[in-house]
Amino acid sequence: MNLNIVFRILSFILMPVAVLLGVIDATNFLPQALSTPQLLLPVFVMAAIVMYIFSSFRFYRNGINGTTVFTHKTKDFIKVNGYVAVGFSMLTLVQSIIVIVNKELFGHLVDMCKSMFEANKIVGYDPVRFCNSILAVCIIFSVLIVAHFVTCMLLLKQYKDKFVD
């Protein structure tokens, strides 16, 4: 399959997720992080993921499919944010797999979900199914980000003539 098609499909899958993450990051997490400095790192990681997805898609749409020529700073921007996104995705992937494999950890996660459901008076949700769903979403998102990053790096290498000083 053509690398451009794979990248386009992955980008269109990740674009709505990036919009959602960006809105959540800007409206919920950033105001909290301004009052609690410990939360700044997760805010910046989420922002890096969003910026990576948007900037790599912009490079694809305007550079590969269009006639725009970018500076090397844009290439560096895509790479740096991509490394942060892949690092986060790899950590999430490994952690999710460990939780799924280790029944004790999974039981602890289910107990935490039960207590959160009870504290917020949420009824009608199965904590086991909820935790399985969250872990599946984390694994799928992580695999998509890693695949997107690999194809993006190959495209950056293939279309290096689209970057000038």
Explain what you see.
With 165 residues, this protein is mostly helical. The protein has 5 helices and 2 strands; from the N terminus they run ααβαααβ. The chain has helices spanning 3-35, 40-64, 72-101, 103-119, 127-158; strands at 70-71, 163-164. Strands 1-2 form a two-stranded parallel sheet. Helix 1 (3-35) crosses helix 5 (127-158) and helix 4 packs across helix 5. The mean pLDDT is 92.
Taking pLDDT < 50 over at least 5 consecutive residues as the criterion, the unreliable ranges are none
Mean pLDDT: 92
Strand order of the largest sheet: 1-2
Q: Kindly, what is the distance between the CA atoms of the first and last residues, rounded to a whole number of angstroms?
A: 32 Å
Share in β-strands:
under 5%
Q: Strand pairing plus helix content: what structural class?
A: mainly alpha
User: What is the β-strand count?
Assistant: 2
Query: Count of helical segments?
Result: 5
Largest sheet: 2 strands, parallel
Task: From the alpha carbons, calculate the radius of gyration and give it in angstroms.
Answer: 19 Å
Shape: elongated
Q: Helical residue percent?
A: over 70%
Sketch the topology as an H/E string, one letter per element. Answer: HHEHHHE
What brief labels describe this structure?
mainly alpha; 5 helices; 83% helix; 165 residues
Quick structural summary:
The chain is built from 5 helices and 2 strands; from the N terminus they run ααβαααβ.
